[in-house]
Inverse folding.
């Protein structure tokens, strides 16, 4: 039986132009146990000025870790999304992100397939992604770290395409992070897909899709920021029961668009977990 912890992806802070520390304060005040920050290369003006939550990989990860832990939080994953078929961009960024994440106290980094070059074929994209993932996984494996590939783009849009991607670079260090909202938008059943991925699931993005957005965007886009969990179209009771019956401890990292949605998501998911615990006793 797996333990489920609730985390918060810090994307929610964009609506308030919030800094990293502001976002950490909100997550702790709501009651989340984990946070999922985002990393960038070099210097970024809005982050440096306190108007954006992203972390520069030039900063001291131990200082950031201290900021997180002072608030009673832990880091579930470091978002290092990079285009996997563009190794000139992705390889060094992911290598550095893995080393940074380890010192940050995170057990994994998050990636997705990202936009592909305009001129490549499917076969060429697979070769390029194989190179990028192999180089990144070599760094992760030496450190006991994981790489979570998020369901986000064309090459992660269906269970069949995910299986194909996994076959490119077989490694116990590569896991799949099911983004429930993205999976739904790509015309899958997220609850059924989660059941298939359960043996290797240690982290998911808990994203709900509002009914109006579901009607308008499903089948048209691969990803978007979601609404509060419990206010959309997804079956959270089923998915939490699936995770609880699984073999791994899992962080359910809420990805939403505002502080209000982050709070409502926590209340809904925490309420379901409390009800399940009462049933079990």
């Amino acid at each position: 039986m797996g333990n489920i912890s609730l985390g918060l992806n810090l994307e929610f802070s964009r609506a308030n132009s919030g800094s990293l520390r502001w976002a950490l304060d909100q997550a702790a005040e709501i009651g989340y146990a984990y946070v999922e920050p985002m990393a960038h290369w070099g210097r970024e003006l809005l982050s440096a000025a306190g108007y954006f939550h992203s972390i520069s990989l030039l900063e001291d990860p131990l200082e950031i870790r201290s900021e997180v832990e002072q608030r009673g939080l832990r880091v579930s994953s470091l978002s290092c999304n990079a285009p996997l078929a563009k190794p000139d961009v992705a390889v060094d960024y992911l290598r550095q992100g893995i080393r940074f994440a380890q010192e940050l106290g995170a057990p994994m980094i998050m990636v997705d397939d990202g936009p592909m070059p305009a001129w490549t074929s499917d076969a060429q994209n697979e070769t390029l992604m194989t190179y990028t993932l192999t180089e990144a996984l070599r760094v992760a494996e030496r450190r006991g770290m994981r790489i979570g590939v998020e369901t986000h783009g064309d090459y992660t849009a269906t269970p069949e395409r995910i299986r194909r991607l996994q076959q490119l670079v077989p490694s116990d260090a590569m896991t799949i992070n099911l983004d429930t909202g993205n999976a739904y938008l790509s015309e899958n059943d997220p609850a059924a897909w989660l059941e298939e991925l359960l043996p290797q699931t240690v982290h998911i993005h808990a994203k709900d899709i509002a009914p109006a957005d579901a009607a308008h965007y499903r089948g048209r886009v691969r990803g978007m920021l979601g609404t509060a969990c419990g206010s959309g179209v997804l079956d959270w009771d089923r998915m939490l029961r699936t995770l609880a019956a699984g073999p791994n401890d899992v962080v359910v990292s809420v990805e939403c668009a505002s502080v209000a949605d982050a709070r409502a998501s926590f209340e809904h998911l925490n309420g379901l977990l409390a009800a399940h615990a009462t049933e079990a006793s």
The first helix runs from residue 20 to 30.
